[in-house]
Amino acid sequence: MDSAGDLDRISVLPDDLLHVILALVGDAAAVTRTAVLSRRWRRVWVGTRGLSFSDTTMNAGDAAGFVDWALAQCRDADMDSLEISMDRDDGLPSPEQVNRWFRYAARHVAGSFHLRLSRGSTPGIIELPGDGRSRPTSIRLRLGARNLLKLPPPEARYEALTELALHSTWLGEETRPGWRALGDFVSSSCPRLRKLDVDRPRWLRRLVLRAEALEELRLSGALDLRTLDVAAPSLRVLQLQECFYGTHTYRDGGRVVHKAARVAAPRLEEVAVSGVLCGRPHLDVHGLSSVRRLGDLELRMHGQYCRDTGHDLWLLESCRGAEHVGLSLCHCEPPSRGAMDGFVDIAAEGAAPFASVRSMVVDAGRFPEHHLVSSMSPLLQRFPCLRSLCIRFTERLGNKRQYCLCRGADYATRGEIDLRSKNHGKILFGSLEEVEISGFAGAPQWDLVSFLFESSDAIKRMSVEMDGAPKRVVPELLKIPSTDRGRWHFEKNMYIWTSQATENIRMEQTMPLQKEKRKKKRER
């Protein structure tokens, strides 16, 4: 057998298989270098099913020219994916070059087309091709801060497009008369679009969507947005973050108009709304009864009182079928002592429980002394059927004493808000089995751990991840009441408590394995 021939078995593979292999390599600089291997390989790479261009792996100053050359060599070859990333400020492409890449992708890329340009790119107008039918199923664009995106005319068809993501993109629909609006493009030219992700757009003041196939809508950083109007019968995921910046109204000619967000989606399953600076009367979402996951809520607590910011409490009250809730919890000062205008008592008598919620994730910030449990206790009382609770502390507690107006003894004794009392009530969570606490750093969290053990006799496992190495951890753990129902284990920077019943089950499961190991050891 010829040993030399055996060393080059890959060259005898058919071109179609080699094209797949080169697509897995991806990096265009490496793929094109295969042309120097032999005469057999000289033109193999031009049929690859995917290319990824990055100016970090190409010659500085000539990255855009290399992309032009490579795409010209590929000519009419079809691809499954094309990715172009230009992050350096030197050798950036001109708008004309970018538009050529767009036209190539529209005709020859049958899968995903991703384009990322540096913020310092040459300013100009970038046009989505409008001639014929576009082939990509996924388009992700980051066009930098100085390029305007011009959408194609109504006759353009993007029937294959199922995913569209626009990041840091300037839209000219409000500044250039006659330019097509993003909502009209999605509603009319993208009949199969299922995912729309718009992040930090500029000049997007109005977004009106009538999309039958749309399943996921993510809109973040739309500071210029004034009107959001969505009718999407298939929509399952809705995420709105940091939108509607400024006041709740704006002037349209001589009229004062309220900013508004209206969403009609009868199949909604997941909703996340945070930092939306639009008041509750102007946030109108139809379909909340079907929501199962609710996230990114922001609750600002002062004991059992929560500041009514407009949409957070309203969403929580409206999504009665939610099974998972994610929220951030922070301490909020009243404007003056005893002045609780704008605050809602979440533990008020007759308040309906959120009985469908089974799991919750809480990101907690810094709280003054005794305020942490005083805020967590009334909140958790509204979720009597919790099975899993995850609390993540985002800042160290107890290192800095945060001033609070109710800290003075004279104020506490007047009875307006008594937060210094540790009698938080004996509430019982008969379903709470799993507790995870991370970022654990100081004394206020010890009160929280004690509170959870006192409030539930069903906990099977609790993990406490330490932030740093606090002293006297073990003595403090052993002082916690009700922990005698199980035992603590130490793993790396984490303490794990398991109930006695869980320990017994674990021993029953491991005992046969231990017996088998001992038997094999004796046989040896």
Can you characterise this structure?
The chain is built from twelve helices and 28 strands. It is an alpha/beta fold and 524 residues long. The strands form four sheets. The protein has a 19-stranded mixed β-sheet that branches. The chain has a four-stranded parallel β-sheet with strand order 10-12-16-18. The protein has a three-stranded parallel β-sheet with strand order 4-6-8. Strand 2 (79-86), helix 5 and strand 3 (109-117) form a beta-alpha-beta unit. Helix 8 (371-381) runs parallel beside helix 10. Mean pLDDT is 80; it is low at 396-401 and 408-425.
- Residues in helix, %: 10-25%
Number of strands: 28
| Biggest β-sheet description | 19 strands, mixed
Q: What spatial form do the alpha-carbon principal axes imply?
A: globular
Number of helices: 12
| Average pLDDT over all residues | 80
- Rg from C-alpha positions? 30 Å
Low-confidence stretches: 396-401, 408-425
Taking the alpha carbons of the first and last residues, their distance comes to 46 Å
Provide the β-strand percentage band. 25-35%
Class per helix and strand makeup? alpha/beta
Q: Can you lay out the helices and strands and say which pair or pack?
A:
Blueprint: H1 3-6, H2 15-25, H3 28-32, E1 50-54, H4 63-74, E2 79-86, H5 95-108, E3 109-117, E4 124-127, E5 138-142, E6 147-150, E7 163-167, E8 170-171, H6 182-189, E9 195-199, E10 206-210, E11 216-220, E12 227-231, E13 237-241, E14 249-252, E15 255-258, E16 260-264, E17 270-274, E18 283-286, E19 293-302, E20 305-307, H7 312-318, E21 324-331, E22 343-345, E23 359-364, H8 371-381, E24 388-393, H9 409-413, E25 434-440, H10 443-455, E26 461-466, H11 473-479, E27 486-491, E28 494-499, H12 500-523
Parallel strand pairs: 1-2, 2-3, 3-5, 4-6, 5-7, 6-8, 7-9, 9-11, 10-12, 11-13, 12-16, 13-17, 16-18, 17-19, 19-21, 21-23, 23-24, 24-25, 25-26
Antiparallel strand pairs: 14-15, 19-20, 20-22, 26-28, 27-28
Helix pairs in contact: 8-10
